[in-house]
Amino acid sequence: MLSKQKVNAKLLLSTRGGPRRSSSNNQLNAMLLLISMLMALQMSSVSGLLCYTCTYLEKYSDNSCVVDANSTRVTDCTKKYCTIMRQESVHPSGKVISFIRDCLDKPLYLNAVKTDSTFKTFYRSCTTDLCNDSDGTTSATNYDPNFGASENKIIKGKRH
């Protein structure tokens, strides 16, 4: 009788142990799959907006920043906009004094041309990868026209 109890106990343990191991293996595989998916999502969210970044000043002889964005550095930015700032002299007209390709959260102007007695300055901003590849004289087509709108709040007050 004792030997029958031992045999039954062994059978019970073997039938319970088998599915438990399979279940724990399935749980482990599911957990590893979940962890790998989360890591993949995190890696993709780490990547930011790709922008060309370079600087040109009139005194430098290398004007590749102005004429060929593809020959400049590409930066993985954590900012909202790729930008161009092109500053030309008014007299003589069209001579590039400075040129900057960059990435910014809050550009001074999204798309504007400002002129004073000395300079004509072009400000361009856009929101897709490598969109700041132009010469800066034409407006960008993919920028956020509502930029900064949340900062313009109307606060009710007393009428005088």
Write down the secondary-structure element order.
HEHEEEEE
Strand order of the largest sheet: 2-1-4-3-6-5
Shape: elongated
Query: In CATH terms, what is the fold-level topology of the largest domain?
Result: CD59
Helix content: 25-40%
- Please name the CATH architecture of the largest domain: Ribbon
Integer tally of domains: 2
Report the sheet-strand fraction. Answer: 25-35%
CATH superfamily grouping of the largest domain: CD59
- Amino-to-carboxy terminus distance: 103 Å
Number of strands: 6
Q: How many helices?
A: 2
CA gyration radius, whole angstroms: 31 Å
What is the gist of this entry?
Helices cover 31% and strands 28% of the residues. It is built from two helices and six strands.
Q: Could you list some keywords that capture this structure?
A:
2 domains, 31% helix, alpha+beta, 2 helices
What does this structure look like?
The protein is α+β, with helices and mostly antiparallel strands and 160 residues long. The protein folds into 2 domains: 39 residues; 95 residues, CD59, CATH 2.10.60.10. It is built from 2 helices and 6 strands; from the N terminus they run H-E-H-E-E-E-E-E. It has a 6-stranded antiparallel sheet. A hairpin with a 6-residue loop joins strand 3 and strand 4. The chain is elongated, with a radius of gyration of 31 Å. The termini are far apart. About 14% of the residues have low confidence. InterPro entries: Snake_toxin-like_sf. This is (Mediterranean fruit fly) hypothetical protein.
